[in-house]
Amino acid sequence: MEIAYWIVAGLLAVFYLFAGVQKVSQSQEKLRPMMGWVDQIPMPVVRLIGALEILGGLGLVLPPLTGIAEGLALAAAIGLVLIQIGGAIVHLRRGEASVLWLNAVLLVLAVVAAWLATVWL
């Protein structure tokens, strides 16, 4: 279970740290080609989503790695589940069903990470 957790958490952490840093640091114009939805959501909200993704990614790995407040890993996984539900809703409202596969994969991985956190940690 421990190895499975680290694989899932590591994959999610890399993805969310990358995506979160982009949302926090790049302009709306640079984000638009990859994330068309940034035109419909105020940039402070996009930045908030990015910050939450960074915190979620760090929350999956730092608490178990340090042994401090390990329950935060479960909270981070649940937070990432909620981010993906919100992302799927945005894509559905925009008629972007073709990109829902990524939301579904990330949602499943976050649910698995939450489950593994309850079993292993």
TrEMBL record:
Entry's transmembrane regions: 6-24, 45-65, 71-92, 99-120
Keywords noted in UniProt: Membrane, Transmembrane, Transmembrane helix
Subcellular location(s) of the protein: Membrane
Any one GO CC term of the record: membrane
Top-level taxon of the source organism: Bacteria
Membrane topology value: Multi-pass membrane protein
Name the UniProt record assigns to this protein: Membrane protein
Organism: Paractinoplanes toevensis
